[in-house]
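Appendix B. Chain record.
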Amino acid sequence: MKKILLLSDTHSHLDDTIMKYVNQADEVWHAGDIGDLSVTDAIKRLKPLRAVFGNIDDDKARLEFPLHNRFKCEDVDVWITHIGGYPGKYNPSIRAELENNPPKLFICGHSHILKVIYDKKNNLLHMNPGAAGKSGFHQVRTMLRFIIDGDKIKDLEIIEIEKKE
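Structure tokens predicted for this chain:
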């Protein structure tokens, strides 16, 4: 059993509230637009981190993190990418792979809009944790946390952080 904290679009922002949830997780997953690598460095000092780079990330982030990160967590096939779209509107560059070899859990960021949708056509769960940072149009900063237990994804929680200033 693994407790996962899922965040995205920190845009160089990390605060005590985010770190409180990092400390409660077994692993932290970041779906891109990290910004300054001090964000991921701080997380990695405390917990195992899986991440991808996003469209705002510089060469340093692109050297450290992949565009796509596909892996197994317990018995769940997970695919994280930054610009992935959502069911019915997947990014054309990955649509064929999603349809031909779908993961059980597909995660992306980029939109700053929290979404959790079950994709019946591709038999996968899509998650976008919204944005944990302060840059962007979103009004409430959000993250997700959940448990992976064997082949089950359960106990999903939405974490809302104070409105942006």
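Further analysis of this model is presented in Appendix C.
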